[in-house]
Amino acid sequence: MPSDQSLSLPSAASAARLSVGMVTFNAAAVLERALQSILRYKTPALELIVVDGASTDGTLDILRRHADRIDRWRSEPDSGIYDAMNKVRLLATGDWLLFLGADDELLLPAETLLRHFKRPDSLYYGDVVLRSTGRVSGGRFSRYRLMQQNICHQAICYPKSIYKTKAYATGSGLLADHRYNIELAGGGVPFVHVDEQVACFDDTGRSSAGDPAFEDFKLELIRENFGLPLYLVKRARNIAVRLLKTNHVTA
Questions:
Q1: What does the angle CA 104 – CA 109 – CA 184 come to, to the nearest 5 degrees?
Q2: Hey, where are the domains in the chain?
Q3: Is this prediction's pTM over 0.85?
Q4: What CATH number labels 3-242?
């Protein structure tokens, strides 16, 4: 049976709120640190939503221990990370939604981010700290840069007008969030960079290794959303990279 632990959510108010969504599965070894990083900033401006994929390792014990400070959580089987993230979208009520992994850490209060958010339909993104090196990663993304690499989703705050209406494509492999962002940028959603370090990101996870199947699909995605010129640039770049790799192997 799915479990669902809910508290009364704050009534609608003029002050903006940030929802922080976390998806978990057998994350007991790292979850406590991640939750503590969020709960230390818990105020009416921050809503915490956790969706667990029916963990069996002690994750639920940790969630129950913090249930009085988690606005809403549930545990039930899912078909993967983006299915769980879609469930978070439907549970969240904040004006913006930020996703963190169970092995990430929030680095600043919701109020610090929200003071940058001036337009209710804009997507705002900051920077992350890479756990493996301590290096700050991020900066501004143009369409050209976005077609080459994704914005770390631990730094992106999606407005309610987007996250409540647009679902992640669960069949897009490990990088469905890259597809999500390309489609949003191609659809004219404003992407606004803010100079804040949002989260400490565990860059040793599965998605950091890339997804060859997604790379095969990305060219068509770029053509559909960014137009023919950037598609041709990306195609030429891919060919050049393959030639360089071939020459290196045969040299």
A1: 65
A2: 3-242
A3: yes
A4: 3.90.550.10
